[in-house]
Amino acid sequence: MTFSRFISSRLSLSTEANHRTPPGIIVAIGGIALAIAVMLIAIAVTRGFKSEIEGKIEGFEPQLKVAPLYYDPEATASMTEFSPRIESAIRQEMIRYAADSKTGVEVTGVVSVPVLLKTDSAFTGIALTAFEGNHNYGFEQKNLISGRLPAADSSREIALSGLTANQLGLRTGDRVDAIIFEGERMKPRRFKVSGIFSSAFSEFDRTIGYTSAACASRLVACNGLVGYIGVRGLRDNELDEAALTLQSLANRLLAEGEFDAPQSVSTLKQTGAAYFNWLDMLDTNIVVLIVLMGCVSGFMLITCLLILILQRVRMIGVLSALGANHGQLRRIFMQMGVRVIGLGLIIGNAVALGFIGAEAAWHFIPLDSEAYYLTYVPVSLGVWPWIAVNVGFALLALCLMIIPTGMVSRLQPASVINWD
Question: Which end of the chain is more exposed for a tag (fewer CB within 10 A), N or C?
């Protein structure tokens, strides 16, 4: 055991007179604990929030979308072909970008039919969405709060969001009148509400409903045509490369006559740009918060070490007179500072992890879904962010301790040995 460690291990953080820990030391430990807790909780909430929102966006929008380059609502060319050959070609081309090689990629044709729903007391417009191909209905099933999704062979069933159902005063099993606009013609229809869903993402819930592919095909007479082709199940970090590959395939299929019109490929980042830009701003807020917490806790740590040094000025003079050099004296107080940092880290981690665990288990903090698109505060920390925060904070604190411990080298034994 070195001289510095031997001395520091026998020194208490409390005062020698009354054995009470000075308020400055308590505040420093509390400040470090608060900073660590705030950092970890902020990162967990931000990661959880981004993960939940991105998951909802990916549930409503595909990772890659193939749609007609030119949109003309009056022409059939505004829709695109979705034949078995096109589906197979896209699947084979995209399999190398699959996030899970076992499940492969999902290639789905999506038909969206604008309709006007009306009851005796209210009306609203939505887009009835239907899927063709091997669509995974896990997202839609998870959001169901009553009833079921429309049957695949039904041409008279629809599923509405809770917002739309409440606006129209509908419940599962009710009938609702609808008007479909086809050019200048209006086609009346009557549907049965088979189920009600809620994603808490009001921007989508207000405008989307679900129906079967058979129903959509009868409403717009588009056998073999879809509004766009969606691709899911790809690795997020390779979407741009996959989009270029898919665009080349679409051009080749156009030249071979599989597509009747030029197609454009867009990524989820492009179709949901407004939401992803909003989520990216959260990262900036976290960086600012971490910097502020680091500055506050660093100031408290420096103050704490100055208090420890001033409490033991006479001891510094005695040890200097006995031959201890400045490096040994500085290491004594740096090792005492490590104890302060350690206590703060332990308390801060205990508070943060306890809060994160409780919120993950019980969701006891509610949110307004109209403002945040979620009904509770989501949390997701992860091992590596937790390690990075603790290690980074500890290294920063060790570097900051060099500043106050430099005061030791300025103390002269002759002037401080009789310090009162």
Answer: C
Q: Encode 284-298: b = buried (16+ Cβ within 10 Å), e = exposed.
A: eebeebbeebbeebb
Alpha helices in 228-272 (DSSP H): 239-255, 268-271
Q: From residue 159, how far is each of 112, 146, 154, 212, 291 by CA, in Å? A: 14, 10, 12, 10, 47
Structure tokens at 321: 């007179």
Which residues does 34 contact at the CB level (< 8 Å), separation at least 6? 293, 297, 348
What are the structure tokens assigned to 169, written together? 């005063």
Residue with tokens 């055991």: 1
**Sorting pLDDT into bands at 50, 70 and 90, what band is 26?**
confident
pLDDT at position 137: 93
Given a cut of 90, is residue 356 above it in pLDDT?
yes
pTM: 0.84
> Token pair for residue 84?
């078995």
Report which secondary-structure segment, H or E, holds 398.
Answer: helix 383-400
CA 384/CA 4 separation, integer angstroms: 33
Q: Reduce the DSSP state of residue 310 to 3 states and report it.
A: helix
